[in-house]
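Lab notebook: predicted structure, single chain.

Context: the supervisor wants predicted structures on file for every construct in the current expression panel, including those that have not yet been purified. This is the next one on the list. No modifications to the sequence; it matches the entry in the shared construct table.
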Amino acid sequence: MVKNKRRCIVIIVGGIITAAILCITICYYIGIEKFVHNENDLAIYEEELSKLNEELGTDYRLSPTGDDTYEDMVAFYTGMTIEEFDTYIREAYEKEMEFDKRVGEGVAIPVDD
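Prediction complete. Output recorded below exactly as produced.
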């Protein structure tokens, strides 16, 4: 009787350990695949940004800002078509140039509330 209880306990503990290892393995591979997938999602945007940097003489980079996470950044950029992304970067560049021009002229810059 005691022998059967020990065997049962060993089988249960072994099953729990096996299930835990399986869960950890699955979570690890899902996490890796998600990260790789996100990197590939940004590849076309990084390539387009590289072309724009060359054209505009800038050194813009894709990176999360403020409290945004990497996933938030991926969702933001991949929510745009490549044409929308191009327009977004060009508009940011124009605003930066306008700001630099105004600062250079000593013009007060209005602050949005």
